[in-house]
Amino acid sequence: MNELDNEEQELLATFEAGKWQSVKEPNRLLELQCYAKASIDFTSRFEAWKAGLVSNPNILGGEVVFPGSRLSVQRIGGCLARGETLEVLREDYPYLTDEDLDFARIYIKAYPIQGRPKDRN
């Protein structure tokens, strides 16, 4: 994502404040509306994907896993963050979709592991 220049930041702030009708440049308004729609669509897709994940205390101590597996989202997201290639992950886990791989990378940033590791007793 590119850094926003000052003018774009002002326009975005105006849009976020609900004062988008006051934007004088129709092309800029359209651009902001496109960004807002894309953000909402993306967030909706991510939330729908996240709703399908599984957290069961009997599977990996309750860690969030992909449905129908014992594979944690954190593991795949971590592999991607460390530079593992999509080809290797697709070969190792052919049941993962492109969306799973894309959103796992985002999931680990949005929901980082916090605190001490769970007691394994």
Q: H/E element string? A: HHHHH
Distance between the termini: 44 Å
The count of DSSP E runs of length 2 or more, i.e. the number of strands, is 0
For CATH, the homologous superfamily of the largest domain is named as Winged helix-like DNA-binding domain superfamily/Winged helix DNA-binding domain
Number of domains: 2
What gyration radius follows from the Cα positions, in whole Å? 19 Å
State the share of residues found in helices, binned by percent: 40-55%
Per the CATH scheme, the topology name of the largest domain is: Arc Repressor Mutant, subunit A
Biggest β-sheet strands, sense, barrel: none
Mean pLDDT: 83
| Share of β-strand residues | under 5%
CATH class of the largest domain: Mainly Alpha
Question: Spans of 5+ residues with little confidence (pLDDT < 50)?
Answer: none
Short description:
This protein has 121 residues and is mainly alpha-helical.
Structural notes for this entry:
With 121 residues, the protein is an all-alpha fold. The protein folds into 2 domains: 45 residues; 58 residues, Arc Repressor Mutant, subunit A, CATH 1.10.10.10. It contains 5 helices and no strands. The N and C termini lie far apart (44 Å).
Question: What characteristics describe this protein?
Answer:
mainly alpha; 121 residues; 2 domains; elongated; Arc Repressor Mutant, subunit A
